[in-house]
Design goal:
By secondary structure, this protein is of the alpha/beta class. The protein has helices at 2-51, 55-58, 61-73, 102-110, 129-135, 146-161, 186-194, 206-209, 234-240, 243-256, and strands at residues 78-81, 93-96, 116-120, 139-141, 166-168, 198-204, 222-226. The chain contains ten helices and seven strands. α1 runs antiparallel to α3 and α3 packs across α4. It is globular, with a radius of gyration of 20 Å.
Length: 263
């Protein structure tokens, strides 16, 4: 009886190994070429469209389609909850936990809302992609000096003043474990300065698709939960006590919808 049990485990293990091998071949021979070509086409469309004066449309919808295609061809089913909490005419600062590079595809493709990104300055050096992001009005956060960082924040606030919504990862970098690290206050300071609501977003699953340090994606379900926005003004800050308490409260909201393995 025990021998039959171990034999079954062995067979299932071999099947899983075969599935991983088949997916790995599919990923490098199908997914990556399609992703490479679609990235170039999307970048060119965004650059041309924005340069011709269509920034509002071209900074959003080509990237949305590109992201959905990426999730589709990597065989990652997506579930979204909470879109009903967003008002179409309202600007928000979206804050989310940062599990993986796939967070971008999950948010960009499925949030269903026009957004701008705050991203690391190093991404501006990616050929075509960096240029397209600049044309779309995305903000590169330069932390090489305090003065450069202030310029990045000023540019973000300029976009907010023009009615845009921003997506920020308050952790600052991707997690190495799937669990959240402490949030920084920068996004919350901007929300207070512009009197804009914070919209917390919980991301589940991208860490299983492409953890930091890995080049091979793995098919896995992903989920995005959009929580009710948090009002940010002097009155609410007074109620919470200070900005850090509000920041911690928002992180707790995001943590409340994390899958058990990421808590």
């Amino acid at each position: 009886m025990k021998g039959s049990y171990f034999a079954l485990i062995f067979v299932l293990s071999k099947r899983n190994d075969m599935k991983r091998l088949i997916y790995l071949i599919y990923f490098w021979l199908i997914v990556m070429p399609v992703f490479f070509v679609s990235t170039i086409l999307t970048a060119v469309v965004v650059m041309v469209g924005c340069l011709l004066g269509g920034e509002k449309f071209f900074s959003c919808y080509p990237g949305m389609l590109w992201s959905k295609l990426t999730c589709l061809i990597t065989l990652c089913p997506v579930k979204v909850r909470g879109r009903e909490h967003l008002k179409p005419a309202q600007s928000y600062i979206f804050v989310a936990n940062h599990q993986s590079a796939f967070d971008i595809f999950l948010i960009y493709g499925y949030i269903g809302y026009p957004i701008k990104w705050m991203m690391k300055a190093g991404l501006s050096k990616i050929p075509l992609v960096g240029t397209a992001c600049r044309a779309a009005g995305f903000i590169f956060v330069d932390q090489s000096s305090p003065r450069a960082a202030l310029r990045s924040i000023a540019e973000a606030e300029r976009q907010l003043k023009n009615g845009a919504s921003l997506v920020v990862f308050p952790e600052g970098s991707r997690t190495g474990t799937g669990k959240m690290s402490r949030f920084h206050k920068g996004a919350f300071r901007m929300a207070l300065d512009r009197q804009l609501p914070i919209a917390p977003i919980t991301l589940n699953g991208p860490f299983r698709v492409l953890p930091i340090g890995s080049l091979n994606a793995h098919p896995h379900r992903m989920e995005m939960v959009i929580h009710p926005p948090v009002t940010v003004n002097e009155q609410t800050i007074a109620e919470y006590g200070n900005l850090q308490v509000l920041t911690n409260h928002t992180q707790d909201i995001i943590a409340s919808a994390l899958w058990e393995e990421f808590r």
